[in-house]
Design brief:
The protein is an alpha+beta fold. It has two domains: 212 residues, Immunoglobulin-like (Sandwich), CATH 2.60.40; 137 residues, no CATH class. The protein has eight helices and 17 strands. The chain is elongated and about 105 Å long.
Amino acid sequence: AGPQTLMGPLIHSACVESWDVETGKGDERRSEERRREFRLTAMPETLQLTSGAAMEERARGLHKVNTYKLKTHIQAQWAPLASLQPQTTVKGSRMQCGAPILMLGVGDARGIRTAQLTLGGQTLALKSGTFHPQYSRGLHATLPESVLGAPDGLAATLDLELVGTERLSIVPLGSNTEVQLSSGWPHPSFTGRFLPSEREVRDDGFTAQWRLSSLATTAQQDITQGKPVCQASTSDDDEQATAAPSSGCADSFSVAFIDPVNPYSLAQRAIKYGVLFIALTFVAVGLFELMKRLRVHPVQYLLVGSALCSFFLLLLSLSEHLPFGAAYAMAASACVLLLGYYASHMLDSVRRGLPFGAGMALLYGLLYVLLQLEQTALVVGALALFAVLALVMVLTRQVNWYGLTAPRSAAAAPQSP
């Protein structure tokens, strides 16, 4: 099963209004039947979901996916179902409505494991599908006609086990919606339209609670209009959750069970440091060229840059088969040895190549530390960059930048006989 969405429960009923219209004149006069098909929907007054998600890591080929088994207890309360009483629009028309159907929509019906619906102390049989034209995936139960005239409204409870991957979205359909979610996963990302009103993220998991009123969300109107429930993109910054949704999507909120240090996210973060990494290496080569009065050809700069780029390709490919730490160590060691060997010849001395290789090893070590950090990566990276800048300024403090070419010009000038 894929990412899951919980929508409902809600009650709907399909109706047909028909009436006769006289058409034609004289002998051609005849009666034709006209029809209007529509759907009546009753949203719950109060909706409470208490859920717990147990995480499990599974593999799809070389790729690892975070799956969860959700156990949720849903309590829904409806006011008297006056909204399911059809109103005629044509005088003398005939009205026919199907039995009221209680439905629960999900994102991927393949993930449904068990479900039990209780209505007024009586267990009702649940069947697949929803009989709703826009939200066809889910469960439904046919309600007795007697519920339409219940003066105290309707109360239902639903116990559901649902399997999904990576993300869970919930549509707040109640006039008052309260959701409690707990899990043993320590890296939740809250996205969608609403942030939790309360949350606690610990090393051994998290708990979150949403409390929403229909005054704050248009979910009821969106579902009545048949708008789709769109999946929000995963982001490590849950401030994105406050962004306005697309006008074509129903209001919802989500929690994504992200892995901030999985091999692919780590490789992506490493690539983002790539330009800075290459620039610092070129600065190191330039310092050797400047301080030791060497000439490094642009082709040699190009080869050094190519070796640095190959590190990221090696890292990504090896991390698909090995733990990230081992893949990083192998890719970094290969590049450090290659660059150290090449620098020994490029800089005309093994004594110069060894410090260059040691500096590269230090850079790779710093990059690995940055990749392992979640909250302090920016400050550590900024301090490291400041330290490098300070080192360059100290080493070049006495360099006469205007006179750099003078010794070379003098050396190149022909001597008089």
